[in-house]
Amino acid sequence: MIVHVIETVLSLVLLIGVGWWIAGRPWCGKAGTDLFSKFTAKIAIPCYMFYNMLETCGTREELLSLFTSLPVPLFTIFCSLLLALVLARLCRVEWGRRGVFLNAVTFSNVVIIGFPVVTSLFGEESLPAAMRYYMANTLLFWTLGVYLLRRFGGAGGPQTLGTTLRGILSPSILGMLAGLLVVLLELPVPQFLFSAVTTLKGTTTALAMVFVGCVIRGTDFSRMKLTRDLAVVVLVRLLLFPVFVGVLVAALPIDSLTKQVYFVFATMPAMTQMGIMARETGSDYEFAAVLITVTTILSMAAIPIYMGIVTHFHLFL
């Protein structure tokens, strides 16, 4: 198992390296990075979610099972948020950074990095559990997460319903809802359409990792300083939080594969959407950008370590 984990991570790191190299070529630049970002977020991932919904919920009964199990990841993420609130107070995180801290600790980058890692580790049988966690993660981020960014930021004013709905109804969610509608209404999908969706879905992992590499290449590391707040977030996000989630899911009445999927998601970096919303809500968005980059790099090293521990001690069995 541990050899497979290391090979999986090395494969993803290699793709990130390709993105890092491409970003330095004169024919790529910012326009190329933007293309990778837009294509991944607006085309590849929605097709990925549509395909996954059809494959994991082929019948109405399977669809019902998916939604009846949703309270478990909601409970897991909500408990993590409560822990983050306590830690933010104990660690005396600056007021303007507190919303970023809470979001960075609680919400994982499930789509761009989480799904490729989980499916590489556990195969497509892990998709139902991954879909449930993704729905819970998205729903809570665009409600409680954005509220906390606004609460501790400088923008002030209430969060509008339109902003919340636009966040929840992202292209990836719309792709998933389209698949849900097809399953619910038992609509036939033409073979040519399904074939095109399958082809586009297959580009998700490569493009997502290449995009991450482009972002890392464009980061000005000379401006990064190891502040106390940064050190606290990294330690909590990549050390304390996975341990907390691991203990929590071990006690929950769910199957072994679901426990492992939720645990792996807990080792993922901070959400990329947090950086965008931090800027819009008046929070410290530069701090958010640093956190996203640092946790993305370090999580690639943390995943083999955690999976090695899980395998060696036969956890979640």
List keywords for this structure.
single chain, 317 residues, mainly alpha, Na+/H+ antiporter like fold, 15 helices, 78% helix, globular
CATH topology: Na+/H+ antiporter like fold
Please compute the radius of gyration using only Cα atoms: 19 Å
Beta-strand percentage? under 5%
What's the number of helices?
A: 15
Name the helix and strand elements from N-terminus to C-terminus, one letter apiece.
HHHHHHHHHHHHHHH
Kindly state the percentage of residues in helix: over 70%
Cα(first) to Cα(last) distance is 14 Å
Query: What is the residue-mean pLDDT, rounded to a whole number?
Result: 86
Main beta-sheet strand count, sense and barrel state:
none
Query: How many discrete domains?
Result: 1
**Sheet/helix structural class:** mainly alpha
User: What coarse outline follows from CA principal-axis ratios?
Assistant: globular
CATH domain class name: Mainly Alpha
What is the architecture at the second tier of CATH? Up-down Bundle
Q: Which stretches are low in confidence, meaning pLDDT under 50 for 5 or more residues running? A: none
Got a strand count?
Answer: 0
Q: How would you describe this protein?
A:
The chain is mainly alpha-helical and 317 residues long. Helices cover 78% and strands 0% of the residues. The chain has a single domain (2-307), classed as Na+/H+ antiporter like fold. The protein has helices spanning 2-23, 29-56, 60-68, 71-90, 95-106, 110-122, 127-152, 161-168, 171-184, 191-201, 204-217, 228-251, 256-266, 273-280, 285-312. The mean pLDDT is 86. It is found in: Cell membrane. It comes from Intestinimonas butyriciproducens.
